[in-house]
Design goal:
Elements lengths: L1 H5 L9 H15 L4 H8 L3 E10 L5 E12 L5 E8 L4 H17 L5 E8 L7 H14 L9 E5 L5 H15 L20 H19 L8 E5 L3 H12 L3 E7 L2 E4 L6 H10 L11 E3 L1 H5 L5 E4 L18 E3 L8 H9 L3 E3 L1 H4 L1 H16 L5 H25 L4 H20 L3
Parallel strand pairs: 3-4, 3-5, 6-7, 6-10, 10-11, 11-12
Antiparallel strand pairs: 1-2, 2-4, 7-8, 8-9
The structure holds glutamic acid.
Length: about 425
């Protein structure tokens, strides 16, 4: 009997939409959310699917599937990035759009949530092909995007260049320069100082707040960071700056471990000179990517993909603090096990909210035509992440739930309150 119980499969799923709903339902039950509000927030307010024919360099035409899901505009214009990946599908984009609604509410910025995606493999496309695809997507979405309507930003495999193509295409359609229609732009096109570092910086601030609660000393903390893109590399850099020892880092091609600590500025320099990859990094041992998650460290920051910690590896996690730099890196089935193990998880919708917070600052600067110093941006971001942390912490204590459910509760209450005031027809 006992054996049978031990072997019991944990209910789990790799579908990010199911993962999102599992938490949303728990939070909704916890605060006794009424059915009307629940039914409105359960579904996206708008789903746009486009098929984009694009000339490829070899003379052929390829049709790409593009999505933009507007989950909610209750708190303001919808906000959220655009990702380019072969994994993009309707459910993933729907989940990510809803996460943006909760994330913006937790960050206390006046936005709803959205997400976009194009199913493509950017590593196999030329710059010209990516440009034509991005411009085709922008033309198709010209009536969806808007400074006060829906504001895209970078996400997985998109960055300043794609945002520049979007602002250029959109501005040509509107016959005026409209920098506020997208954030994460290059500085020369109205981007904000500090936006590049913002998500990783926010991860660090959220981590420091959590460490204070756990009475962890940064100088005695060993950290492992999964993912060395825009989020993970800055998170690792800031961790080291704050005195932590980052013993493991990784990218999609491999993980690197040195119990004495990895020199992060050097690793960034190496990556930049090595076509964006850590492959061949000196001064660390190459290990398997899955093994990085199971290292004997105090702090783990998954800053790569969804579904990295799940029912099959969660028992092997040794960190006492996990900070989600990525969106959805822990499946809902792993949540309970981590809670039972006494691991503190700082959820994505709080931990990586520094990115969209500085996107908001960029948008404010674009609207005012007045630009802030980096110090201004960082000071305001730090204060905002600390405030969001404290709000979620309070909810989690009040309702005796995890930080994740506390964050969902905070977000749900805010959106539900605004919805009551706005009403519908
Ligand atoms: N893609 C980022 C996220 O998932 C940033 C979104 C934004 O800045 O609008 O939070």
């Amino acid at each position: 009997m006992k054996q049978k119980e031990n072997k019991k499969e944990i209910k789990d799923s790799n579908n990010p939409l199911e993962s999102m709903f599992a938490r949303f339902d728990t939070a909704a039950k916890c605060i006794g959310l009424d059915d009307e509000t629940y039914n409105v927030l359960k579904v996206p307010s708008k789903e746009i699917i486009v098929n984009l024919p694009v000339y490829m360099d070899n003379g052929s035409t390829q049709v790409f599937h593009g999505y933009r899901i507007i989950h909610s505009t209750i708190l303001g214009p919808s906000k959220g990035g655009i990702r380019y990946s072969m994994e993009v599908d309707l459910d993933e984009v729907k989940a990510l759009a809803a996460w943006m609604t909760w994330k913006c509410a937790v960050a206390d910025i006046p936005y709803g949530g959205a997400k976009g995606g194009i199913k493509c493999d950017p590593s196999k496309m030329s710059k010209g092909e990516l440009e034509r695809l991005t411009r085709a997507y922008t033309v198709a979405m010209a009536d969806v995007f808007g400074v006060d309507r829906d504001i895209p930003a970078p996400d997985m495999n998109t960055g300043q260049q794609e945002m520049a193509w979007i602002v250029d295409t959109y501005s040509k359609i509107k016959r005026e320069f409209v920098p506020g229609v997208v954030t994460g732009k290059p500085l020369s096109l109205g981007g904000s100082l500090g936006r590049k570092e913002a998500t990783g910086r926010g991860v660090m601030i959220a981590t420091m707040e959590a460490m204070e609660k756990l009475k962890m000393d940064p100088r005695k903390t060993l950290a492992a960071v999964q993912g060395f893109g825009n989020v993970g590399s800055y998170a690792a850099l800031y961790y080291q700056e704050r005195g932590m020892k980052v013993v493991a880092i990784s990218d999609a091609w491999g993980a690197y471990y040195n119990p004495k600590g990895i020199d992060i500025p050097k690793a960034i320099e190496y990556r930049d000179a090595n076509h964006g990859r850590l492959t061949g990094l000196k001064g660390a041992t190459k290990i398997e990517n899955e093994d990085l998650l199971e290292l004997k460290v105090d702090l783990l920051a998954p800053c790569a993909l969804e579904n990295q910690i799940h029912s099959h590896n969660v028992q092997k996690i040794k960190a006492k603090l996990i900070v989600e730099g990525a969106n959805g890196p822990i499946t809902f089935g792993a949540d309970n096990v981590l809670q039972e193990k006494g691991v503190l998880v700082i959820p994505d919708i709080l931990a990586n909210g520094g990115g969209v917070t500085v996107s908001y600052f960029e948008w404010v600067q674009n609207r005012n035509g007045y630009y802030w110093t980096e110090e201004d941006v960082f000071n305001k971001e730090d204060a905002s992440v600390k405030n969001a942390f404290s709000n979620c912490w309070k909810e989690s204590k009040k309702h005796k739930v995890t930080m994740r459910i506390g964050a969902y509760i905070f977000a749900l209450q805010k959106v539900a309150d605004a919805m009551k005031f706005r009403g519908h027809f």
